[in-house]
Amino acid sequence: MSRGPIALDAMGGDFAPVEIIKGALLASQDFGVEVILVGEGQALQAHLAELGQKESDKVRVCHAPEVVLMSDAPSVVIRGKRRSSIRVAANLVKKGEAAGLVSAGNTGATMAAARCECGLTKGVKRPAIAQVFPNRRSGTVVLDLGANVDCKIDYLVQFGVMGSVYASIVLQKGKPKVGLLSIGTEDSKGNEFSRGVLQAMRDNAAIDFVGNVEGRDVFKGDVDVVVCDGFVGNIVLKITEGVAETVLGMMKDALSSSILSKAGAALVRPSFKRLKKQMDYSEYGGAILLGVNGVCVICHGGSSAKAIRNALKRAHDFAESDMAEQIAEKMELRSAAN
Amino acid sequence: MSRGPIALDAMGGDFAPVEIIKGALLASQDFGVEVILVGEGQALQAHLAELGQKESDKVRVCHAPEVVLMSDAPSVVIRGKRRSSIRVAANLVKKGEAAGLVSAGNTGATMAAARCECGLTKGVKRPAIAQVFPNRRSGTVVLDLGANVDCKIDYLVQFGVMGSVYASIVLQKGKPKVGLLSIGTEDSKGNEFSRGVLQAMRDNAAIDFVGNVEGRDVFKGDVDVVVCDGFVGNIVLKITEGVAETVLGMMKDALSSSILSKAGAALVRPSFKRLKKQMDYSEYGGAILLGVNGVCVICHGGSSAKAIRNALKRAHDFAESDMAEQIAEKMELRSAAN
Fold first, then answer.
1. Partners of residue B214 in chain A, C-beta under 8 Å
2. B182 chain-A contacts, CB cut-off 8 A
3. What are phi and psi of A6, to 5 degrees?
4. How far is it, in rounded angstroms, from Cα B81 to Cα B88?
5. For a Cys staple, B183 with which of A234, B126, B238, B321, CB 3.0–4.6 Å?
6. Model-level pTM?
7. pLDDT at residue A296 above 70?
């Protein structure tokens, strides 16, 4: 049972609007997801026509005359561009005309639009960006990846609760194990702030807290949720992408270094394609903004049509879940326990 | 011209003392490095004998009756185990009987011993741990990797100065480019603390500061030194190790997934061995503790004989450089500018 179409910011992303439109068409064809393309109406119609398509029940267009640039401050969607594609898309969710929102545009502006239109889930102090990091076993949810650079202790406790609900759905784990990102597993490890968070998380009844975890644990799969502040989380995300790219690049160099290895490379290519797919974040359909009233999926600026397709599928699936209700419920549980 | 032997904590590390002793023998044979093995005298002599060796001018033994455990608090070497191998090794450096110190034992205790015996370089407020992160071009020095979890703004400025001197020697760069690890390159990006550091680093005349850099930049090679606090740095180090291990592990899985790829794997194996070597931190001979009076190289707890060999070579090379003098000089330059 679908709760309705997904509003897609057609103007956001390095390859907007063409790749974004292609992604919408793919999601519709492959998964039957209904999409509302939000952006400059005439341009979107023209691009659809160029692709040999036209507006339909499955993929329709909603006009928004303004565009948020990557260089715009997040506040622009609140004080300035109120008729921008991202703000209009968020408004469709607020009005119940869309079941969720997907954007590959300016992350700060997307968060601001979602928060301003849809509001925060009851009890939530700050929304957080979460993403699944793939590992050899399955995956680990890491948050916050950049929504909050200066945090208070109770924000991180709430991230643990929201991350736990998210992991229970996306990783299908009954009781996700939650860890706090630190520099050693002992309670004494960490900085002043993280030691304060550790104590507060131990006191929280809504999560299965395992204590401090290290960077390596993100990739071991022993813990399902790893919590950190948005400054650390964003660095972790970009370090991870950087290392993976570097290793794959070095591998490519190595494979073309001799005739023998070139011959070998031809044989191992299919296996490597699978490996790259496994490592590819776009397969996971973007990051999610937790703590707002409504599903909001945030994609990488460089998203391909395939990445947009997967993000739309993810938003569609989450719209069918009761994630927001579960988060609100667990926030209450926590308040009651305190 | 050598400034003397390197004191090696023979009791520190997961595979101590056998791998450590083997590392000393390798460094002596391969590079002519003189080594003083510090630890339980009789046991070390017995292990040397088992390896068909005995004490010589090149590899000699210095007795220390106590051992610091991995679980010991760093302060144990100051208040408690004053005759521990790491403290005695640091004392050899202080007395001028050794030109440098290498340990794969308890990192906190190694730092405490080096600081307590050798003292800080003039002008330095806090020592920092630095390491070269390999990338496709050459390498980037990252610091602090865990010596200081709660930092003040001027500590990070000093890390930039010390990292710059270190990079000029280890990467052989005339004027190393220094960046501040943040979550975007614009000046507005970062948290409250990092924005304060950014301003202070801009005002420092002793470094070629390029502003904020992102996690990915560590692996691009456009910047030679990346500065962060020890909490973030230690997380970055362990995330990097975790991702590299995971990608290499996935690669192994992929290579054995079919008969064709197994055949290909045999052909690409030599190239992969080179790749693994390129990625292998032990090739870089450990991390260095900057800001103490004396060369102090800190190795991974799991160091192999080869890793110890390389660390001894590195300590030997640094003992011949004028790194400490350069750091003291630049600290003065900075004080003069302020």
1. 235, 238
2. 235
3. -105, 130
4. 10
5. A234
6. 0.90
7. yes
